[in-house]
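Write out the 3D structure for:
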Amino acid sequence: MYEMTYIVRPDIDADAKKALVERFDAILTDNGASIAESKDWSSRRFAYEIAGYHEGTYHIVNFTAEDDKAINEFDRLAKISEDILRHMVVNREVKSEAK
């Protein structure tokens, strides 16, 4: 299970943000990932300026993938996109219940 967090610039309108989220969710699924959850976390103020912005909307996607193809493609396209200020992927270990 992976968790991807990315920050969307704050001055994007609601329709454009929805399209951006759908586009990047599709990038993951088109490259073999299975999305468990995709949701906005919150809008937060940054500790320092990022690309001229002092705040942004954090979006979190939890997904599974067999290989790194989906992650690499998301990473490549997120770096090009002016609407995504930062992104990060972490591998979340699924803990099994103790018997």
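The longest strand covers residues 34-50.
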